[in-house]
Design goal:
elongated, 45% helix, alpha+beta, 10 helices, 2 domains, six-stranded antiparallel β-sheet, Arc Repressor Mutant, subunit A
Length: 271
């Protein structure tokens, strides 16, 4: 005698999945109604902004409150973002540590390397300049490679200029005050005035270029990366032999580099 199959629901399994996804979307919609301009909202405000009914919004807020994502003010009944959001924001902000940022960026660096054929690297500020913290090395026989852990001064290279271009004038002045000026290669800026002009150009156009500034016969393009609070925390550069990685090819790579940095910044929560 065959055993009867158990009946678990009177509706297809997909229906439960749809309802679950809808609940998640509604809960996230509620969280996204809070902003710097509206840090506290009443139930009616939330309903108006999300289109949810009072009963649905109240049910969602109870669940979010239980998980710590919102808190209700005992005096006026308004809601604010809770401690769980703060904890998650710390995770995002920690993404600007060297190890975390390198882990986030490495797949993107490999994508840039595969699409340009040249070496892509991630550089972050160090005590007296910048340091390479991640790199996807070109697979071509003749290539340029920085090497993870290699440090460079503030006054030379596209990545240095990209980092400096995103700083405030005060931060830039402090950084350059620590620079030990020396001629590294034939293309190294010979004085502060020329360097400042190139930094201003980089700030205007959104990217920096260099030819023979740190290594003879090497060219590079770099763009800054900003963290969740808008501060420049790194630069992504693409470097190769000048005979092949020409100024024209570097400029052609601007859209690619810009789109990659936009994706990185989305992961960092950059506004």
């Amino acid at each position: 005698m065959n055993a009867a199959a158990p009946v678990v629901s009177g509706e297809p399994a997909e229906a439960g999945t749809v309802r679950g996804s809808q609940a998640i979307e509604r809960a996230l919609g509620i969280l996204l109604t809070f902003s710097m301009e509206s840090p506290a909202l009443h139930l009616r405000d939330i309903c108006d902004r999300t289109g949810l009914t009072m009963s649905t919004a109240h049910r969602m807020l109870k669940a979010l409150s239980k998980a710590g994502f919102v808190v209700q003010h005992p005096a006026d009944g308004s809601y604010r973002l809770g401690p769980a959001v703060v904890s998650l924001s710390r995770v995002v902000l920690n993404g600007t540590s060297r190890s975390m940022l390198a882990a986030i960026c490495l797949p993107y660096l490999e994508d840039i390397r595969n699409r340009t054929g040249e070496t892509a690297g991630l550089h972050m500020p160090s005590a007296d300049g910048r340091v390479c913290v991640a790199e996807a090395e070109s697979r071509q026989m003749m290539r340029m490679a920085t090497g993870v852990g290699t440090e460079f001064p503030w006054h030379a290279g596209a990545a240095s200029k990209a980092l400096l271009s995103g700083m405030t004038p005060e931060q830039r002045a402090q950084a350059l005050a620590r620079a030990t000026w020396r001629q590294i290669s034939s293309g190294t800026p010979r004085d502060g005035e020329r360097l400042r002009e190139e930094i201003e150009t980089a700030a205007d156009q959104g990217y920096a270029l260099s030819v023979g500034e740190t290594v003879e016969g090497a060219s590079a393009i770099a763009m800054p990366v900003r963290s969740a609070d808008g501060q420049v925390v790194a630069a992504i550069n693409v470097t190769g032999p000048s005979i092949r990685w020409t100024r024209e090819r570097m400029v052609d790579a601007v859209p690619l580099l810009g789109s990659v940095i936009a994706r990185v910044e989305r992961e960092l929560g950059t506004r």
